Amino acid sequence: MMFVLLVLIALPFLYDSRTLLILFSQVFIFAVFAMSYDLLLGYTGVVSFGHAMFFGIGAYTLAIFMRRMDESTMAGVFLAALVTLMLSMILSFTIGMLTLRLKSHYFAMLTLAVAGLLMVVAEKWRSLTMGNDGFTFMVPDPFRDRLSFYFISLLFMVITYFCLQRFTESPLGRVLVAIRENEARAESLGYRVLYYKVIVNVVAGIFAGFSGILYAVSLRFVNTSVFSTEITLDALLMTIIGGVGTLIGAIIGSGLIELAKHGLMGLAKVHWIFERWMIFFGIVYILAVMFFPKGIVGALGQWRDRRKRKQTVVHSVAKTQYEKTF
């Protein structure tokens, strides 16, 4: 882990490429979004189809504040972060209290409906959001330079990883895993399952909103696509491909998917075969699920366990032969 982090820190100085900086900044941002989704899917067993609602709230909040305030100051960014924190907490708490006491698919469908409702609001409230066309805005100086933004995004991802790792390894995180494995048994042991689900939904919503803020900063443009189901599906697939229930898996999955998108889109520009690059992208998903059903981290874990078992068997046989000899 530390070696990979050192490589990412040194990467901008080894390869002077603006495209590379932009690409990896997107990887870091979506890694945070995928980790927030993994809290729900991987650690609690809750499926959400509208997790992009928090992502979109963060993006639009930042964009609106930047357009209406002095872009040269950081006050707008901090104020947008504060408002995003409050809105994400209120919305995630309300949705959680209304639906998480029911079966998971009710929660999934309601989150999808709320995300769709927010998209419609953004489309119709043109005086504030400019509708589907969206709008551009300026950002403070620290975010304009791609090199500094690269390190800001990297730092944001690292801090998020360690915060969520501490969260998942806490007693509360252990209860979430118990709920995922057997919700009825966890409730019979005296745990108030609804409250734990609401807590994790609030935490996931907050980090998703913060990732939306950085996403808007990276593009300096926002439109209604930030509320789209495609954003949520990307997080879902990043989590599945990397490894459900592992934060590092969400980071690996986001890196692979963003790099695959970039590579296939680049090939589409040079050869007509790749013009329908989404088809090849779908094939990548299918192959990943077929050969890595537990994700890349899960597959590596299984390989490590098989190797340990094999070594144990070899040592056991060798010990038995030695004892028979003497």
Brief digest:
The chain is 80% helix and 1% strand. It is mainly α and 326 residues long.
Task: Describe what you observe in this structure.
- This protein is mostly helical.
- The protein has two domains: 14-293, ABC transporter involved in vitamin B12 uptake, BtuC; 297-326.
- 80% of the residues lie in helices and 1% in strands.
- It contains 15 helices and two strands.
- It has helices at 2-14, 18-44, 52-68, 75-99, 104-124, 126-129, 141-144, 146-168, 171-181, 183-188, 193-219, 229-242, 247-270, 277-291, 295-325, and strands at residues 135-136, 221-222.
- It has a two-stranded antiparallel sheet.
- It is globular.
- The model has no long low-confidence stretch (mean pLDDT 84).
- It is a multi-pass membrane protein.
- This is Branched-chain amino acid ABC transporter permease.
- Pfam families: BPD_transp_2.
- Keywords: Cell membrane, Membrane, Transmembrane, Transmembrane helix.
- The chain crosses the membrane at residues 43-65, 77-98, 104-122, 147-167, 198-223, 235-257, 277-300.
Jot down its keywords.
15 helices; 326 residues; ABC transporter involved in vitamin B12 uptake, BtuC; two-stranded antiparallel ribbon; 2 domains; mainly alpha
- Biggest β-sheet: strands ordered side by side in the sheet: 1-2
Largest sheet: 2 strands, antiparallel
Mean pLDDT: 84
CATH architecture designation of the largest domain = Orthogonal Bundle
**Strand residue content:** under 5%
CATH class of the largest domain: Mainly Alpha
Helix content: over 70%
Number of domains: 2
CATH-defined fold name of the largest domain: ABC transporter involved in vitamin B12 uptake, BtuC
Oligomer: single chain
As a whole number of angstroms, the C-alpha radius of gyration is 22 Å
Name the overall outline: globular
Q: Structural class, from secondary structure content?
A: mainly alpha
SSE series: HHHHHHEHHHHHEHHHH
| SS field, number of helical segments | 15
Number of strands: 2
Indicate the low-confidence ranges by residue numbers.
none
Spatial separation of the terminal alpha carbons: 46 Å
Membrane topology: Multi-pass membrane protein
Keywords: Cell membrane, Membrane, Transmembrane, Transmembrane helix
Protein name: Branched-chain amino acid ABC transporter permease
GO molecular function, one term: branched-chain amino acid transmembrane transporter activity
